[in-house]
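Problem 12. The chain below contains 102 residues. Write out its predicted structure in token notation.
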Amino acid sequence: MEAANRGAYEAGGKTIGLNIQLPFEQHPNPYITPELNFDFHYFFMRKYWFAYLAKALVVFPGGFGTMDEMFEVLTLTQTREAGQEDHGGDLWAGVLEACHQP
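Solution.
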């Protein structure tokens, strides 16, 4: 996220940061607009606000973190906590089909 924040900062734009408070690890990067820097104590609240405020979610193949984020957003959509949009795409069709298997 720092690269995206830095690019927007250097272009003169405002940047947002949704950080999780961990005892010895995570600190906000210096390119976040101070009044748009939000700290969360719980991972689920951070994920909720990421999904709630987002206009879109683009998921590229990655590791377990990628799958975690995707399934979190799918769950929020299914429970109507987040807006419902197209979740398809040929890339994830097999994964989504497996989710619908009994």
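Discussion. The first helix runs from residue 2 to 10. Students who got a different answer should revisit the alignment rule from Section 12.3.
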